Batch of 4 targets.
Target 1
Amino acid sequence: FHSGEREEKCIIEDVPSDTLVIGNYKVQRWDTRKQEFLESAPGLGMFVTVTAPSAEILLSKLYGPQGTFSFTSYLPGEHIICLQSNSTRFVAFAGSKLRIHLDIRVGEHFFDESAVQAKDKVNEVNLRLEHIIEKINHVSKEQNYEREREEKFRKTSEETNSNILWWAIVQTLILISVGIWQIKSLRDFFISKKLV
């Protein structure tokens, strides 16, 4: 995505609890002479802030023009990940465009291939099995989180349905009351004018 030099850009990532989130990014600065983005942005860094659903800041750190950040969620929900350059230019003069390449992986686990190659076949199978078990645990957490979200949505839908039903009943009672009052008022009017 593109961003201004001092502009903060945020994304929302829905993450289950106890899940590792890894983000890789790279910043490129627009070169006005060449009319293209430079391969790197030397001297420019990114300030990364991660906020939990409880509004608690999980990560707030300054990184270089290219880097990796990671955090572990402790609450399920929408985590806000914000990126802002550390440009020292004043806002009025910071007109340079930035291109930010961002790759976020949720539930990733580090799997060291070199360690697998160094061990014998039994250990290789054992490490791969542990990695598969970690992935299964992550999928299980993800399913539980989605199940909780679906249950919350269902409860909200049922409450809304119930409220609509009661609102329809109240409207019907008001309509009947107004109708009876109009009939009584018209009857009293006709009696007073001696038309009936």
Note: Helices lie at 113-118, 121-192.
Target 2
Amino acid sequence: TSEMLQKICIRNLVRKYCRGVTAERKAQLQQKVVASAIFRGKKEGYVQSITQPFLDTRLKENDLNPKVLQLIHGEKVKYVVPVVKYDRNGFKARERLLVLTQAAAYVVEMAKIKQKIEYATLKGISTSNLSDGIVVIHVPEDNKQKGDVILQCEHVFETVTKLCMLANKQNLVKVVQGSLQFRVGSGKEGTMIFTVGQEPQIFKAKTGQLTVV
């Protein structure tokens, strides 16, 4: 009887807890579960990120240029975060916004949409096992796309989790070690090297590769 009562008590406590969880808290827990599946034991800095709640967005929809909102044809904006985009040729750093809607990811410069990646065509998302904030969004080889998107983001765990959940492609996220390949365009590929050093930096090495320290 004691064992049965213990089980009933535990079930009652669990039921009470679940019924008391707000929609916001439930969404937060769901995101953290996905982040754990992707990054736990794979990427440096993950453990420190666990206690930090994910924000709904880093910038509000009102912070976007009205022209951008017109260009995305009224799609519901789900998440906006400042990023640094690296050119595929030359690797020049450029400040951009990553805008995630319910249907696509947009790389935005002021009032211009520089690149649109529909979730249905998303081929993969890559990040390194080190503490850098590099995210590579892999796109298909077609005339609509210029090549893969190389981004640096301060909120890498949050951003990758949001992206893969909106795209419903959690299984396409890869945490790589050492290096990764990205598509430059026109059938060409580039290489990104990840290494450890005393100071974080990102630069084009003499070999022509993008090096992330």
Note: Helices lie at 2-20, 23-39, 46-49, 66-71, 156-167.
Target 3
Amino acid sequence: QESHNTSRGQEAVWKLSRIQFTYDTAERTYFKDAVSPGKHTASSHRLSALVTPAGKSYECQAQQTISLISSDHQKSVQLLLSEVRVQPFDITADFVFSEEHKCPVDEREQLEETLPLILGLILGLVIVITLCIYHIHHKLTANQVQIPRDRSQYKHMG
């Protein structure tokens, strides 16, 4: 947990700052034909993940990738997280999460889903308003005398 100075004053947040992942490449279920079987450790370096305002839980449905540095420097280790929900502090009861803080990826996806709907409704409203104005204008000008625009119709007047 740490505090940041913002325009709204002092704001407390919590974040994941270190991960240590231990894996065994001798396990044949996940590591087939491993070159150097054995236990290895991968850890994070200056990590700042799952940043959330204090007092809220973290929720993210989207897939996130965290790169780790392996003890065996020939290997690249990436931790893939999806459908994550974490309540690190202030647990009121077992299996009860506080108000969730959605990750930026989920918020962006939600906006991408709702934005076309909003734009479609606005466009439909503009079309309906335009048709109403045309209808009203047509009704008001229907009883007025129309002056001929073609000059050939003026010949019989002379």
Note: The chain has one helix and ten strands.
Target 4
Amino acid sequence: FDPRHYLGTHCYGWPKTGPHRLRFLLESVKDLRETLKRKGSTLVVRKGKPEDVVCDLITQLGSVTAVVFHEEVKEIL
């Protein structure tokens, strides 16, 4: 969870993630974790800036050979 998603936006000051969306995200992550656990896997959940959290996870795991990510689409004004 990126803390920057809970701050006001630069355009209107509204948070990117409001209380209803946050509740949906938390329920979705909980369900995904439970589903993965039933299949013998797990889900790593962290709070922080992704560029820092991913680097820390790679260091902790030590045997990472690839990292895949997506970039948020920017608004065209």
Note: The chain has a mean pLDDT of 86.
